Amino acid sequence: MYRDISVNLVDVSKKIGTRYLFTGINLVINAGQCLAITGPNGSGKSTLLKIIAGLNQPTTGAIQIISNNKQLDAEERRGSLGLISPEIILYADLTGYENILFFTRLCGIECNQQMIEEYCRRVGLANDKEQLVRTYSTGMRQRLKFALMLAIQPGLWLLDEPSSNLDADGKKLIAQMIGRGLEQNATIIIATNEPWEAEHADYKIELV
Ligand SMILES: Nc1ncnc2c1ncn2[C@@H]1O[C@H](COP(=O)(O)OP(=O)(O)OP(=O)(O)O)[C@@H](O)[C@H]1O
């Protein structure tokens, strides 16, 4: 697992059709720091996050992901990050517990029963972990994605609208998790419409 991640945005732009969503983004985010990408619907927040994840290509410029002074290649980049997004789908016919087991095994991460139970407890799903995900509400699915983030413990967290569908208690939980992640030296990038989520970020990119 890659730690102490720096994300270096070098003159990044993205054009879709005839419209530039953003141009000339230059920024370095170091381990333990948080970047908030804000802007109205359709301004390009998710697109920029996907470009950082390597799931989309910039029109110009480059993203460098650096861990311990080494620039990661595409495969290493995938191994360095965790992405929470509405586009990430959980397996509806597995339980919450089984989803964590499945995804952690896929990532080659050892996770025993006690650990999975603890991650479920921390996101408020202790009593629901044996239920099929198809019975979960959208807020419960979002909580399960955060349990997965706890299980995988990536160096780089990419969060697309992390508090969407969460109640007040869930939002507080996510804010605490982000704070703890930063204390543990994760690099965290949040795309959000929620001003409070951007409040404590070290850097902000405001798209229009
Ligand atoms: N693959 C694509 N093909 C065509 N247009 C796209 C594609 N991906 C994104 N877009 C367009 O790019 C713009 C930015 O989309 P994006 O999803 O990044 O915005 P956003 O700021 O995340 O919006 P929201 O707040 O609604 O989630 C939108 O106008 C969208 O229609």
Structural summary, described in words:
With 208 residues, the chain is an alpha/beta fold. The chain has a single domain (5-206), classed as 3-Layer(aba) Sandwich (Rossmann fold), CATH 3.40.50.300. Helix content is 35%, strand content 27%. The strands form two sheets. It has a five-stranded parallel sheet with strand order 6-7-8-3-9, sandwiched between helices. Helix 4 packs across helix 5. The longest helix has 16 residues, at 168-183. The model has no long low-confidence stretch (mean pLDDT 95). Adenosine-5'-triphosphate (ATP) binds at residues 16, 21, 39, 41-47, 193. Residues 16, 21, 39, 41-47, 193 line the site of adenosine-5'-triphosphate.
Q: What keywords describe this structure?
A:
208 residues, alpha/beta, Rossmann fold, five-stranded parallel β-sheet, four-stranded antiparallel β-sheet, 7 helices, 9 strands, binds adenosine-5'-triphosphate, transport, ATP-binding
Q: Give the CATH H-level superfamily.
A: P-loop containing nucleotide triphosphate hydrolases
The gross shape turns out to be globular
Q: Which CATH top level class fits?
A: Alpha Beta
Largest sheet: 5 strands, parallel
Number of helical segments with 4 or more residues: 7
Terminal CA distance = 35 Å
The CATH topology comes to: Rossmann fold
Indicate the multimeric state: single chain
Tell how many strands the DSSP assignment holds: 9
Question: If strands are numbered along the chain, what order do they take across the biggest sheet?
Answer: 6-7-8-3-9
Ligand set: adenosine-5'-triphosphate
InterPro entries: AAA+_ATPase, ABC_transporter-like_ATP-bd, ABC_Transporter_VariousFunc, ABC_transptr_haem_export_CcmA, P-loop_NTPase
Protein name: Heme exporter protein A
Organism: Pelosinus propionicus DSM 13327
Keywords: ATP-binding, Cytochrome c-type biogenesis, Nucleotide-binding, Transport
